[in-house]
Amino acid sequence: MTAHELMVERLVRAGIQRGREELANLAYGMARTCLKIAEGGAPGSFRTFDELRGVGELRTDLTRMTARVGALPHDLSTLPLADPSPDAAVMAADACLDLTRSIEGGTPRTEYARAMLDRAAGRPDEAVGRLGHMLTSPLSRRWWMFVNEGIQGTLFLTGDFETIIAIGQRVMPHDPRDSTSIYNVLAAYAWLGMRQEFLDLAPKFTASLIGVADPSFWSQQIRKEAEAFAGPLCLEIQDVYGLIPATGTDGGT
Amino acid sequence: MRRAPTPSPVVIRIGPEPRVMPDDFLERIRKTVGEDARLDLEQLDRDNDLHVDRAAAALHRRFLETDDVEAWKLLCDLTEDRLCALAEEVAREQGLLDDPSELVVRYFEELMVDLRPAPRGAESFLRRARDAMRVDAETWVRDIALSSARDPGIPQVWDDGHPTPEPADLAQRATRIAFHRLDQPYRRVLRAKDVEDLSTEQIAERLTLTPAEVDDLLAEASLRLAAAVDRELEGGPR
């Protein structure tokens, strides 16, 4: 082959590969949008309409990119992308994640999204298992923190507060400014009625908010939890994690 | 975030002898773009920028309007050598040490994922490509200058502060980074001398300087580069 032919081949190969990567990005974006629909927002809410519009635009882009780089292993045309119900959204997100995985393999973002999908589909134990498995592979620091926060957040659904505390205590020394992780541990302390531990950790949480864009919201949250360790605390946790507090578990002293 | 490229004057190249493409190549382009009034070429001279531009613009428009990947592939074939020459000019101007052909690869990658509507008007494909590659080269130089030789680029399991091992090619990485942290005039002369292997007189002619000025510039550039490499290897401030 001539130098020109070799270069043209290189350009075509690189361009098609880039197109496939973009296809994976679009499918991943579609999966995340469907996941938001599955996780919350009642049908007919503004959020759902906004995301459905996003789904429509993404579908157009997906169709165009498919035309450029070739056939997809998954037929997205049969997906109920216009159906705003959570079940349909879960199905659509699942298919889109399959497409992304088929192009880029099991990357942190696809595995994490699949864990969140498990959670949205009412399978928190599978979600925790999948996130825990991610920690056995090399991860950037950013993903390591993200996965640990995901595990803690999911464990609230199963009520495994002891594990939340154990994980949080492992994570916190590495990033004392990780407000979310500290908040999770504080909430777990509250659920378990560990008042002194709660009061000891609360200042660390306040300190972690230095530099945060809007610390007042979190400060108000934590002040409420410190001042009223019973009913209002459970309402805060419900608000954050969508949980309904079990009867009698008010964390009061 | 990339800034919009500043349009630059078009430098039309028309070769001393026409390098006419085979008739079937022009015919393939005509078949791909369909009825396009702007593609009124009787023959396609690859060394005539006006010809190349006209055919490239038609192919590009076809690709953006219909996602016809054959149009994109023909565009690669038609413009590859001209864009590689332009990329070399850009690399020379920016003092970019890395392979300039990578600028062309990146440009075609961006074309592949560009889902915007086809541009209106008779904008020059070659000029747009050169301006985009120029911005890309500036960004590339800056990204290299802002990187660290000790950054392995490989995710590590966060395991209680275990020290990150140093990359095996640390000295080479440090030199590349230090080079791109130099000011542009120093990068240009060093590249002309060490990569293009030009003589002092040739460099002087290119940069409109005297040979003595070039020698001074080279000496200063070498000193600065050595100091920058040392700083990078020590992991000190830039």
Task: Describe the structure in your own words.
The complex is a heterodimer of chains A (253) and B (238). With 253 residues, chain A is mostly helical. Chain A contains eleven helices and no strands. The longest helix of chain A is centred in the first third of the chain and has 37 residues. Chain B is mainly α and 238 residues long. In chain B, α4 crosses α5, α5 packs across α6 and α6 packs across α9. Chain B is globular. The two termini of chain B are 23 Å apart. Chains A and B meet through α1, α2 and α6 of A and α3 and α4 of B.
Main features:
heterodimer; A: 253 residues; mainly alpha; disordered C terminus; B: mainly alpha; 9 helices; globular
Brief description of this entry?
Chain A is mainly alpha-helical and 253 residues long.
Largest sheet of chain B: none
Find the count of extended strands of chain B (DSSP E, 2+ residues): 0
Order of helices and strands of chain B: HHHHHHHHH
- Total strand count of chain A, please? 0
Radius of gyration of chain A: 22 Å
Beta-strand percentage range of chain A:
under 5%
N-to-C CA distance of chain B: 23 Å
Structure class of chain A: mainly alpha
Average predicted confidence as pLDDT of chain B: 85
Instruction: State the end-to-end CA separation of chain A.
Output: 81 Å
- Mean pLDDT across residues of chain A: 76
What is the ordering of alpha helices and beta strands of chain A?
Answer: HHHHHHHHHHH
Proportion in β-strands of chain B: under 5%
Q: Over all CA atoms, what is the radius of gyration of chain B?
A: 22 Å
Topology:
The complex is a heterodimer of chains A (about 250) and B (about 240).
Chain A: H1 3-39, H2 46-69, H3 86-104, H4 108-120, H5 124-134, H6 141-158, H7 161-171, H8 179-192, H9 195-208, H10 215-227, H11 231-241
Chain B: H1 23-33, H2 49-66, H3 69-94, H4 101-113, H5 125-146, H6 170-181, H7 184-194, H8 200-207, H9 211-234
Helix pairs in contact in B: 2-3, 3-4, 3-5, 4-5, 5-6, 6-9, 7-9, 8-9
